[in-house]
Amino acid sequence: MSEITRRDLLASGLAVSATSLLSRSAFARSAALLGDDMPQGSAAAVPAIAPREQLLFDFGWKFTLGDGWHPSKDLNFGYGQSDFAKTGEFKFAKAGFDDSKWRTLNLPHDWAVELPFVHDDSGEGDSSLLSHGYKPLGRRYPEASVGWYRREFDIPASDLGRRIWVEFDGAMRDVIIFANGCFIGRNDNGYAPFRFDLTDFLNYGAKNYIVLRVDASFGDGWFYEGAGIYRHVWLTKTDPVHLGNWDSTVRTTVSGDSATLALAAVVQNEGKEAANAKVSWKIVDSKGATVATAEAPAHPIPVGGSTTYTASAKLVKPALWSVDEPNLYSALVTVEVDGKVRDAERVTFGVRTAVFDPDKGFFLNGKPLKIQGTCNHQDHAGVGAALPDRLQWFRLAVLREMGCNAVRTSHNMPTPEWVDACDRMGMLMMCETRQMSSNPEGLQQLELMVKRYRNSPSIIIWSIGNEENQLQGPMAEQGAKIGASMVQRCHELDPTRVVSAAVNADNEKGLSTALDIIGFNYHQQFPDGFHKKYPKRPIYGSETSSAISTRGEYATDPLRNTVNSYDGVVPWGETPEGWWKFYGEREWTAGGFAWTGFDYRGEPTPYGWPSINSQFGILDMCGFPKDYYYYYKAWWRKERSVHVFPHWNWPGREGNEIPVWVYSNLDEVELFLNGKSLGSQRVPHLGHVQWKVRYEPGTIEARGAKDGKVVLTDKRETTGPAVSLRLSVDRTEINADGEDVAVVKVEGLDGDGRLVPIAKNSVEFKVSGAGALIGVGNGDPNCQESDKGAKRSLFNGFAQVIVQSTKQPGEIRIEAVKEGEDNPDLKPAGIVITTKQAPLRPAVPVV
Ligand code: GAL
Question: Averaged over 42-56, what is the pLDDT?
Answer without folding.
Answer: 87
